[in-house]
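step: validate -> pass
step: tokenize input -> pass
step: predict -> running
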Amino acid sequence: MTETTLTEQHRELLDQVLDKWSLQILEALCGSPLRFNELRRAIPLVTQKSLTAALRRLERNGMVERVVTGTRPVAVEYRITPLGDSLQDLIDALLHWTTETLPAVERARASFDDA
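step: predict -> pass
step: emit ->
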């Protein structure tokens, strides 16, 4: 295994694509493209402002694309890109890790809080 240093660029990218709303947006878009209001319904706790900001971050980082359809009236859809889709295995691995380690983490938290 090679040694890798976590740089400012690494931290910034991870912060932008693995934050609370971005993960939920990527999960929602894995099935099919969605319009803005469909995303809001899929993620009921997100505010319009937070959803807009997260979509812009994901689009800027190449994880999501914003597509204006030629229908009448004009509609905008958000789609996961191949780059965004490449995160799926990593996200699945993180979810597996959290599921496996959560009991140990909860014990450590309880021990810390009791001390």
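step: describe -> The helical segments are 8-17, 20-29, 36-42, 48-60, 82-85, 88-114.
step: cleanup -> pass
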